[in-house]
Amino acid sequence: MATPFRVGVSRDLIRPNGELGFGGVGMRLLQQTPGLEVEFLPEHGKELTPRDIAGFDALALLGGLVTPATLAGNERLSLVARFGVGYDNVDVPACTANGVFLTITPEAVRRPMAVVNLTFLLALASRLLEQDRLTREGRWADKQDARGTGLVGKTFGTIGFGRIASETHAISKPLGMRHVAHDPYADPTRAAEAGVELVDLDTLLQESDFVVVAAALTPETRHLIDAKRLAMMKPTAFLISTARGPLVDQKALYEALRDKRLAGAALDVFEEEPVDPNDPILQLDNVIVTPHALCWTDECERIMGESVLQSVQEVAAGKVPANVVNREAADSPAMQAKLQRYAAERGA
């Protein structure tokens, strides 16, 4: 009889009122799958400890830090399956060294995040929140002071040209803008086929009317958009940040917005999350802010849950998962032994 494949789920999927977050989709799918034994991880601080993850074959993780110390001495864990595409809270080299796969859910957020970017673009261009405020305040006569920005002929740029950025370009094509992107790893042929011009970062910032920051957060990209680069942008331009907060120097952005050196911004992510309610950037009337949750739709929740379950099932069957970040972990003797054991137990 096969040993149950044990999955620990991070407790941040439980909302303050005790209900399951993400509509409970991911947890229900895991619980309803034969051969899996699922339970929530113990209460913990930001960093998971060896005791927290002891006895689990896989972690289904939203938040929580996985560090080298987390994995120290653990010989059982074989998978960290992230709900989402960012994995700056997981030490990838430590996972690889300890024979642990890291997977993400790219298809779950590709279209929803592209829609987020488009939503912000349209809201900024139309000055939607300003129009809402003046209407509620009875300032009908002031409506001409909140005129929007037309999009035809404007330049739309993305910093990054991965799944989300390329999907954003695709769904915004009918709006009649010029499309540019900066990504040193982008395939020029794929960009050309999509009608997107690849340019250097300075050119993108200088020429774009709307800039979406859609890069991965690495030590090299932290504060990629700093005071110097913000100064390159047109005073009529808008910045949209939806990937990871630390990609943008938030203090420098605040100063640029405060001094009207930038027309506006939309932020779904912040340098520190949750953002401090007293952060001065929240007091500005030319910035739209949301709590790193604008893509959380029923569509996103469903695909994310299905993707995490797929990763768990693939590893439990002794296979290398499809959406793996560190495929090289499969070459380690520790991982090979785990996969062989899982395959033998389940007759794969």
SSE topology sketch:
Blueprint: E1 5-9, H1 25-31, E2 36-40, H2 50-53, E3 58-61, H3 68-71, E4 79-82, H4 92-97, E5 101-103, H5 106-126, H6 128-136, E6 155-159, H7 163-172, E7 178-182, H8 188-193, E8 197-198, H9 201-207, E9 210-213, H10 227-230, E10 238-241, H11 250-258, E11 264-267, E12 287-289, H12 298-316, H13 333-345
Parallel strand pairs: 1-2, 1-3, 3-4, 4-5, 6-7, 6-9, 7-8, 9-10, 10-11, 11-12
Helix pairs in contact: 1-12, 5-7, 5-12
Notes on the protein architecture:
The protein is α/β, with parallel strands linked by helices and 348 residues long. The chain folds into 2 domains: 5-106 and 297-345, Rossmann fold; 108-289, Rossmann fold. It is built from 13 helices and 12 strands. The protein has helices at residues 25-31, 50-53, 68-71, 92-97, 106-126, 128-136, 163-172, 188-193, 201-207, 227-230, 250-258, 298-316, 333-345; strands spanning 5-9, 36-40, 58-61, 79-82, 101-103, 155-159, 178-182, 197-198, 210-213, 238-241, 264-267, 287-289. The strands form 2 sheets. Strands 8-7-6-9-10-11-12 form a 7-stranded parallel beta sheet, with helices on both faces. A 5-stranded parallel beta sheet has the order 2-1-3-4-5. Helix 1 runs parallel beside helix 12, helix 5 crosses helix 7 and helix 5 (106-126) packs antiparallel against helix 12 (298-316). The protein is elongated, with a radius of gyration of 22 Å.
